[in-house]
């Protein structure tokens, strides 16, 4: 009798088992957000490391060439070669083979360059961004297809749109450090390298995103830019409306990753052949940027358009204190 009682007590009743399962489910639901936060923190750190590598590469390029790497983009629709500044960085981020296989006498979209420009460069990809293997396409192609160029989630902030100054939303508009078709030098940054942005996140392109949500699909909805080999991936600061649907606007970052280019004929009536990207990331609360002195900062979503513009212009002589 005693042994029988002990055997019965050694097991679980159905009610006890259900209670245990319920406790496990509750604990798992409590732990899951913490795990997700830890993973995003790791991804954000990797993103910062990528930008750090780009900043160091730009400085090493300057030490070697006496200038920063600037995109080459002849005006208008042209058969002349268009070469992104990021292409010039390839030997400085461990991608010498890709650089050697890129023929700079031809456009990035030329068939002879397809193997090189379709190569995914890990340093150009933020791990928080969906679909690291997405492709960008030739903007003048009809129909447009995303079938040529591997992408970058980081780009030069080449300046601040004059429309913001006209609307009295910013103190100054004008050039950033890495202006196109130039030979930008450290001495040109009269606002100070430690308070001027070199590269910023503009993630998810050529897909169109607003507040973390993909809008429509390619090719009907798209941002002009995204390919690391494209000068059009460089972007100016325009700002956007709170919902991200209208540019320019008062929101500096993370409202949208760019102007919707999908239904617009190329060249664009305002942007022309330039890219339509904006500062954007998939991190919670802000974006990572590389500063001209090589440091990395995280800028919060609530940064004002005026302060962000001050941090982008290289010679506006505004006082810009990094938050």
Task: Describe the 3D structure.
The protein is α+β, with helices and mostly antiparallel strands. The protein has one domain. The protein contains seven helices and ten strands. The radius of gyration is 24 Å and the shape is globular. The model has no long low-confidence stretch (mean pLDDT 92).
Sequence-ordered SSE layout with sheet pairings:
Blueprint: H1 2-9, H2 14-65, H3 85-89, H4 96-100, H5 114-117, E1 135-136, E2 149-150, E3 154-160, H6 162-166, E4 174-175, E5 197-201, E6 209-210, E7 213-214, E8 235-237, E9 286-291, E10 296-300, H7 305-312
Parallel strand pairs: 3-8
Antiparallel strand pairs: 1-2, 3-4, 3-5, 5-9, 6-7, 9-10
Helix vs. strand class: alpha+beta
Number of strands: 10
Strand content: 5-15%
Number of domains: 1
Attribute tags:
323 residues; alpha+beta; two-stranded antiparallel ribbon; 7 helices; 11% strand
